[in-house]
Structure formats: structure tokens, C-alpha cells
Amino acid sequence: MRVALLLCAVGVAVTIGVSPAAAQVPTTGLWGVGGSIGAAGPSDPSLRRGLDGAGNIETYLTPRVSIRGQVGYTSWDIVGRHFNGTISPLYGTGNVVYNFAAGVVHPYVTGGVGVYHYHGSVTGAQDRSDTKAGANIGGGVEIFFNRSAAFTSELSYHKVGAFNSPVTTFNDGSFWRFGAGAKFYLR
Fold first, then answer.
1. What torsion, rounded to 10 degrees, do the Cα atoms 6, 11, 17, 21 define?
2. What is the Cβ-side half-sphere exposure of residue 40, based on CA atoms within 13 angstroms?
3. Which residues does 124 contact at the CB level (< 8 Å), separation at least 6?
4. Fewest Cβ atoms closer than 10 Å to its Cβ: which of 106, 118, 144, 145?
5. Domains observed in the chain
């Protein structure tokens, strides 16, 4: 979480020298690639939040609407149970994004569906994986450095049902994710 907050602070500090607002309007057919690092907090009380990383690719259908694919990974320690181990979700999502372009600052909302692959590793048991479908919703902001680079920050909620681990079923695979990073536009 400290890394994400540090990235936010650096992003705000760097935006002092951003380019003119007119240069920040996305165009149809524009592509963007990016990545972020942050934290993911699972809903299940026997899982401890962990570091999260994600990469994404996005294309604009209109100046305000885009479609984004994202792949992410996190790892959570199992706590408060009679066994020790980790749960490591790998997820891929497809989202629709609507941005509210306002000069160099572009707040946005997003929502979509995804596939969530939970890998469980528990001491004394054979590893086990389980894959589930889920949905996500969130919002964030892009702050442009120049025409082709932006600082990004996003908070999202991923709703996923129960999943199996090597020795038990976790009743809730849902989690909150906060990430900060960068996005680069290919013109």
C-alpha cells in the first residue's frame, strides 16, 4: 500500500509540467498500454491483503468510450485457520471504460466481466487450483504528462463467488484492488 501511495504522490508532483488540455483528447482507434502496482484486499476474513500487479491494453471506440483488457496477479496469506499457506489469484478481465475528459485530468468509470484463477498452496497438502467467473466495477483517474503518457490510479471491486483450495472451500473470492501506474498511448 505504501508503494501505491508513493506512486500517487510522484504522479501528482510530475503533473506540474503537463501539456496543454487540447492535446489530451482521446481519438477513435487510439490504443493504450499500461501497468500498475498496488494492493488487493480479499473479502474473506481468513485471507490477508497482498501486493497486486496488473497490465492492460485498451482501444477507444469513441473519444469517451473504450474497451480494456487487463491481466493481474496477487497473492494472499491464509490467516486464522488451522493450516498455513497462500492463495494466488491470476485474473483476466474485459471492461468498458467511460472517461470524463477534463483537460489533463481524465476521471473514468469502468465495469466488466472476468475469469479468476485461484491457485492454493497449503503446507502438507497437494496444491490445487480453481477457476471462477466474476464481474468487476471501479473508477479512477488519468493525469497526462504529455500527449502520449499518463499517470493512472484506480480503485475496483471484483465480485467472485466461492472457490476451492487444497483443504477447504473459501466462501468468498471477492476483493478490492487499488493500483497506481502509468499508461502510454500509441498514435
1. -160
2. 27
3. 83
4. 145
5. 2-19+27-186 (2.40.160.20)
Identify residue 8 by its one-letter amino acid code: C
Q: What are the residue ranges in the chain where pLDDT is below 70?
A: 1-26
- Name the burial class of residue 79, with classes exposed (0-12), middle (13-18) and buried (19+) by CB atoms within 10 angstroms of its CB: exposed
Between CA 103 and CA 112 the distance in angstroms is: 26
- Residues 118 and 173 sit within 8 Å (Cβ to Cβ): yes
Q: What is the pLDDT of residue 2?
A: 53
Helix/strand/coil percentages in the chain, nearest 5: 10, 65, 25
Query: What's the pLDDT tens digit per position in 36-89?
Result: 999 999 999 999 999 999 999 999 999 899 999 999 999 999 998 889 999 999
